Amino acid sequence: MPNLKLFASRTDEPLGFTSYQYYFTPELNQRFHLICHLIQNSEQLLLILAETECGKTALLNQLNKTAEKEYKQWWIYTLTSSPALSPEAFISAILAAFNVRQDGKPLHVLQDSLRNHITATRYNEQLPVLFVDDAHKLPLATLKYIIELAMQGEPLTRMRVILFCEPQITSILATPEFEIVQKNMTHTLDIPPFSGEQVRDYLLFRLQNSKYSTIHPFSNDIIKKIYRESEGIPGEINRYAQQVLRQFAEQRHELTLPPSLSYSKLLWGLPIVLVLLGIALWIWKSPNLPKEPTSESLSPALYDQLPTTQRAHDTEVTVPSATTPTLTDVQAGVAASIDSMQNQIEVKREDWLRRQNPNAYTLQIIGVHDSLTIEQFIAQHNRHKFAMFKTTFHQKDWYVLLYGIYPNHNQALIALETLPTELQQNTQPWIRTLASVQRRINQHTP
Fold it and tell me: Does the structure show a pLDDT above 90 at 272?
């Protein structure tokens, strides 16, 4: 059975996923209205945290659309982050949106000019709002200035700032350089993945007003498999659904008669087909001939072309061989004995994390640029559920410390709520999937 492989978005797909109405689950609807309320009425910095492809940009775009109709007093600037965006370039871009010339002016003059225009805008009963997409990609100096723009100075000189970013930004904001965040109130919201039922409703919602609104391939079995493979992440649901629709369209095209095939030709051809089918049936039933049809010779149903993977709520169990222990087994046993005698900590690394069930969950405790910091943290807390991997962040080595493996999101949530207090001091732990960890590891591996 072939695996369902992901592919890049194409503009010629049977159903385009690049432009569409926003799909609101009850959870997203509640968060959306809360965001609008906070922008309108609160001076707090607002963080929207979600992993890649969970829908941060789609939510940002919907906020822009809603503001055009319902919040016309908002003056909105949307920033797409880049690792090369300096504070000077950022301020210049904002001032250009205010129609202010800034050629050749020093940084402090640009900063004063921006604050003055923010104040003037608010005096005119408009609210300057800054949406920052992928804020975790910004240089630290630019990120710090944007946060100060939201939290520093007199209220009338501030912008409303909403940062759409991956949860790893919390490790950055916990450093001494961002003390202003730690001393002021912030509001943090997440974007939850879809449930299995919401995946079904989402796909049907997306098929509305398309040629697939009444005839489509999304049976209950296919939807369940898309849910398990995508983990409810909208970006991955889109890609799996695109592939299913493309296969469905190709099969329907094959079953459609070519325009040049007339009715008379079809009438003459049917007896020939029947004769061939009779011969094939005779060969099949002949006792003297082998009857070993392969799986490749069958025509599987569309949903059988999707991969059958372990269910998201199953727990992965490894049964060691009783007769042929491997060298790894022996080494693990020796290491366990040494650890028990010397009270040392075994921290799992990249190879071990790659072997875990991608549908499982873990807790990310901290992420830092200095490996010594993580080593000291591990030695200080003496926990035996730690795992660690190395990747890159802001073009520098980035060391991530994880805690525990949990078969489903509910158990991970319970573990987060009951996490020992010492693991939460000066950290902001969050739940992430093993699939996201494995992607990071694979991206970093040469």
Answer: no
128 φ, ψ to 5°? -70, 125
Domain positions in the chain are 26-190, 327-444
Percent of the chain surpassing pLDDT 70: 73
Where does the pLDDT of residue 325 fall: very low under 50, low under 70, confident under 90, or very high at 90 and above? very low
Q: Which CATH code, of 3.30.70.1070, 1.20.1250.20, 3.40.50.150, 3.10.180.10, is assigned to 327-444?
A: 3.30.70.1070
Q: What is the pLDDT of residues 401-424, one digit of tens each?
A: 899 999 888 888 888 888 888 787
Considering only the top CATH level, what class is 26-190?
A: alpha beta
Determine whether 135 is exposed, middle or buried from the number of CB atoms within 10 Å of its CB (0-12, 13-18, 19+). buried
Q: Alpha helix locations (H) across 152-233?
A: 169-173, 179-182, 196-207, 220-230
Q: How far out from the chain centre does Cα 35 lie?
A: 20
What 3-state class would DSSP assign to 164?
A: strand
d(CA 277, CA 270) in angstroms, rounded, equals 11
- Taking Cα atoms as reference points, which of 369, 366, 368, 389 lies closest to residue 441? 389
Of 343, 340, 347, nearest in space to 374 by CA = 347
- Does residue 278 surpass a pLDDT of 90? no
Residue 122's region, left for phi above 0, alpha for psi from -120 to 50, else beta, is alpha
CA–CA distance, 49 with 166 (Å, rounded to integer) = 5
CA distance 313 to 359: 8
Rounded Cα distance, 135 and 248, in Å: 39
Most distant CA atoms of the chain, gap in Å? 94
Amino acid at 28: L
Distance between CA 306 and CA 4 in Å, rounded? 5
Name the residue among 238, 237, 193, 242 with its Cα closest to residue 216: 242
Is the Cα torsion angle 56, 62, 68, 69 positive or negative in sign? Answer: negative
Q: What is the pTM of this model?
A: 0.62
Query: Is the pLDDT reported for residue 268 higher than 70?
Result: no
More confident residue, 106 or 61: 61
CA distances from 17 to 21, 236, 303 (A): 10, 11, 21
